Amino acid sequence: MTTDAALEVATSANAAGFRYVRDPTIGVVSAIKRSCTPSSSSKAALARCTDLIGPVVRRVISALPGATLLMFAASPLWDEPNALARRRGLWGTKELRWLPADALRTQPLEISGQAGSRFAGVAEIDLERWLDAADFVRTNAASFLFVSTRGEIQSERARATFHAVFPSDSTLIDWGCVIDQIGTGADACIRVSGNFDDRDVAIDVFLASESFAKLELR
Q: Which of 13, 132, 154, 189 could form a disulfide with 98 if both were Cys (CB 3.0 to 4.6 A apart)?
């Protein structure tokens, strides 16, 4: 049995159970489709969530002068990338073929640490590609979406974001550190969850709770 997607709002994400959100003044708007069966399509459930929460994302962008929807992405870890991997970098992988050739993006950075090497970058996302972007970050744990009024697409920004969200050479994104970007490198951060073996599919939009009244979020 499946249920239709629902929109949930909390002015304090931490109080609502998002323990990795350290700042109690960060709120969250979530679109959740619960009790998806193994036979149901995760992407179909995600499409329902993107339809439901899409107007909220558009409202956030419209309320902030010069704001854009951006995506941070990092590749899986390599012990030592081969020549083909280096030629593809990040943007040449098949998982990102949906990204238009003319989309603004950084040159892919190769960043090395004790656990191996990754390619990382930031790209601007056209809202017409909202579902594709949400599906990509849903299935690629080293990526996320964010809204920012700092519209520059620069390699140094991608590098700084990488080191902020992979602290202390971590192999996994630290979502507490992602949310800490709100107010510095981001105005809102978006997490998409729910792979093929998960019961729920969700999109969580985190932003400062003081924005809720301005955006008429209840």
A: 132
**CA angle, 197 as apex, 193 and 203 as ends, to 5°?**
15
Question: What pLDDT does residue 39 have?
Answer: 46
Domain encompassing residue 115: 6-214
Please return the burial class of 4, using the count of CB atoms within 10 Å of its CB with bins 0-12, 13-18 and 19+: exposed
Would you say residue 100 lies in a domain? Answer: yes
The two structure tokens encoding residue 91: 């943007």
pTM of the model: 0.90
pLDDT digits (tens, 9 = 90+) for 14-45: 999 999 999 999 999 999 988 655 545 778 88
Counted domains in the chain: 1
Q: Is residue 128 part of a domain?
A: yes
**Distances in whole angstroms, Cα of residue 218 to Cα of each of 27, 134, 176, 187, 192:** 11, 23, 24, 19, 21
In a domain? residue 1: no
- Provide the residue type at 82 as one letter: N
